[in-house]
Amino acid sequence: MLISQNMVARNRGRLLASYRSPSRSRYMAAPEAHFQHLSTFKLPVLERERPDTAARASGPVARRALRAGYADMLVIGNGIAGLAASVEARRYAPDADILIVTEQNYPTINTPALKQFGAGLLDVEQLLAYPPGTERELGIGMVNLRASKLDTLSRQVQLADGQTIKYGRLLLATGARPAGLPSACPGREFDGVLSLHRLENYLDLRRRLPEVSSVVVIGGGYHAAETAMLLRHWKVRVTWLIRGQTFLSNLLDDVASDMLIRHIQRLGVDVRLETEVAGVVGRIGVVAGVVTTEQEFLPCQMVIVCTGAAPATDLAQGTGVSLSTRNGLKVNGRLQTAAPDVFAAGDVAAVLDPQSGRYAPRAQWYSAFQQGRLAAAAMSGASIPPGAEAGVLGCFWHATQLGEMGVLTAGGPMLSEDDHRENEVLCNGASGFYRRLVVRQNRLIGYLALGPRPSGGLAIKRLIDEGINIGEIKRQLLTEGFDVRSFFTHRRLHALQSGGAALPAGSSRRQSPHRQLAFS
Question: Is residue 28 part of a domain?
Answer without folding.
Answer: no
